[in-house]
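Hi R.,

Here's the chain you asked about this morning:
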Amino acid sequence: METKGIVAFAFGVDGKILPNLELAKIASDKAEELKAPVYTQSDIIIIRKGIEVVYIKEEPDNPPPTLRIARGAVKWAERQGITELWVAVARPHSWRAMRDMEEAVRETGAQIAVQICEEIYDVPASEWFCPDSTQTRTRSWWRFWPREAVLQLLPFWIYKRVAS
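And the predicted structure, written out as tokens:
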């Protein structure tokens, strides 16, 4: 029997901004569909009854790096006996989040499959960025892309040191 879990990455800061509401809905829907627990950040507010949620410990105004979240998710999954993780992540952040999830699995040698929640592609591109986010880089594509480009082009061994 395959045990499934959901990992939801916030996009921006505050649980009430549209991107995080979208991600909370996607994670909740997938959790109900798969009867799976959720591992997420405090800005992804899961309010539906019956969904087991583990929130990552975070410092106020200092969200953890994507790779650190991915490593925590894989450790959590191993403790829970989860063999398949579904990732709910904003589409602009998806490439790096999936790369980091796969790296976290490789680092541990875990037998965990990683899948993206396809529902993220149903969200219009314009809804992923929110001017109300207190995390400046997620307010617009033009604020997000310069940092993201650097992180994608950075040699991975350097990225791992920065993100650890």
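The mean pLDDT is 95.

Let me know if you need anything else.
M.
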